Amino acid sequence: MLIKQVSVFIENKPGRLLAITKVLTDNGINIVSISLSDTSEYGLLRLIVSDPEGARLVLMENGFSAMLTDVLAVRLPNGIGKLQEMLQVITEKEQSIEYMYILATGGGNDSMILKSSDPVHAAKALKEGGFELYSPEEAYHIA
């Protein structure tokens, strides 16, 4: 199942990340997972939130460049070789992984947010490989 990730381009200067979290908080949107990468002048913030479309709209209304991207939230049991097994399944189906980051779910079963070259094909491969995917409802409301 595909879920929506909010991607935000932000200037790499003090207060910009705080401004984004304030907009989301003020609009009752919970951040479930977050990844931030940067260059010297700009950053790319990737978020899994409780209301992706709502987050995109309020961020744009507040002057931020935000878009939605299809990603996968893969249940990944904590154990030696589990990440390697997941990567093997993706590679065998000739999928490339563009990026990934942790989705902390607790209980020893942390998961990965994964963006692949073809998310639908990757989702099918992962399911066939024995991996479970979060539904959008589950992923957006992890407590």
Write structural notes for this entry.
It contains 5 helices and 6 strands, in the order βαββαβαββαα. With 143 residues, it is an alpha+beta fold. A 6-stranded antiparallel β-sheet has the order 2-3-1-4-6-5. Strand 5 and strand 6 form a beta hairpin. The longest helix has 11 residues. The chain is globular. It starts with a strand and ends with a helix. The model has no long low-confidence stretch (mean pLDDT 90).
Summary of the model, kept short:
The protein contains five helices and six strands. The chain has 143 residues and is an alpha+beta fold.
Write the layout of secondary structure elements.
Blueprint: E1 2-11, H1 16-26, E2 31-38, E3 42-49, H2 52-61, E4 65-75, H3 82-92, E5 97-103, E6 111-116, H4 119-128, H5 136-140
Antiparallel strand pairs: 1-3, 1-4, 2-3, 4-6, 5-6
List keywords for this structure.
six-stranded antiparallel beta sheet, about 35% strand, 5 helices, about 140 residues, alpha+beta
Strand ordering within the main sheet: 2-3-1-4-6-5
Low-confidence stretches: none
Give the amount of beta strand, in percent: 25-35%
Q: Output mean pLDDT.
A: 90
Total helical segments: 5
Instruction: Give the H and E element order.
Output: EHEEHEHEEHH
What profile does the largest beta sheet have?
Answer: 6 strands, antiparallel
Please count the beta strands (DSSP E, at least 2 residues each): 6
Structural class: alpha+beta
Q: Using the alpha-carbon principal axes, give the shape.
A: globular
What distance separates the N and C termini? 20 Å
Helical content band: 25-40%
Radius of gyration: 16 Å
